[in-house]
């Protein structure tokens, strides 16, 4: 069966990194394909015998972005193995990336021709408006504080899973860097005892045995894990009935290194019977996500 990956999202969020990773792993990749040619492209790849293709579509494609959600629905109705990944980042990160690369935003010329403000901030705002219908329907990865290596790993894991059931993801993050855009449910564990204040535990993470053992001794930690797990078990069936393809449960603590990592790992163990299941840690010390 033909496996199709569509990479889309906000300019500057890492689409090129994701597309190059897919190309390196054997996908036939096409960048900036006009939406109106998507059906024709897929038909031609099926005829040629290819089994893995990746396409990048974003605001550089003129005019027909509004048709894309309907086309994706029709492809899924035909039983296509279709993964759509929407990459996003906060405005400050996008502005910094454009400043470092010294590239122009793809909407700047269009807004200028229309007599509108073509500043970078205005281009980002306009792009979010154009892509909002697609963003609301697909799986979002917030790349604001991700390294290129993390993004490549997250996309690789995502396109390899079987989407017959909801893809359940447990993700740890640091509140000091903000709540990630890709979170569907957010739980705050900053009220739990903090290993950071133990000099021997400070350089470790929530996946290290000494930190796990230290946290496990507190009844409040176990109670927090129990409560979050109970909430998810109660409501996950309704999320599944809502034709949802993905559910990302974000667990946050101050630095995203100890408590949130530990709780996310414990929750993943509780839901080991759910498939597909992913674990993500946004902290740079834990770049490689673990496939349970």
Features:
single chain; 292 residues; 2 domains; 4-stranded parallel sheet; 18% strand; globular
Helix content: 40-55%
Shape descriptor: globular
Q: Overall mean pLDDT score?
A: 89
Question: What's the helix-strand series?
Answer: EHEHEHEHHHEHEEHHEHE
Please provide a written account of the structure.
The structure is a single chain. The protein is an alpha/beta fold and 292 residues long. It has 2 domains: 3-160, Rossmann fold (3-Layer(aba) Sandwich), CATH 3.40.50.300; 167-286, no CATH class. Helix content is 41%, strand content 18%. The strands form 2 sheets. The chain has a 5-stranded parallel β-sheet, with helices on both faces. The protein has a 4-stranded parallel β-sheet with strand order 7-8-6-9, sandwiched between helices. Helix 1 packs across helix 7 (148-160) and helix 9 (219-241) packs across helix 10. The model is unreliable at 288-292 (pLDDT under 50).
Write the layout of secondary structure elements.
Elements: E1 3-9, H1 15-24, E2 28-31, H2 38-48, E3 52-56, H3 68-77, E4 81-88, H4 91-101, H5 108-113, H6 120-135, E5 139-142, H7 148-160, E6 167-174, E7 185-188, H8 209-216, H9 219-241, E8 246-253, H10 259-270, E9 277-281
Parallel strand pairs: 1-3, 1-4, 2-3, 4-5, 6-8, 6-9, 7-8
Task: Provide a compact summary of the structure.
By secondary structure, this protein is of the alpha/beta class. The protein contains ten helices and nine strands. It starts with a strand and ends in an 11-residue tail after the last strand.
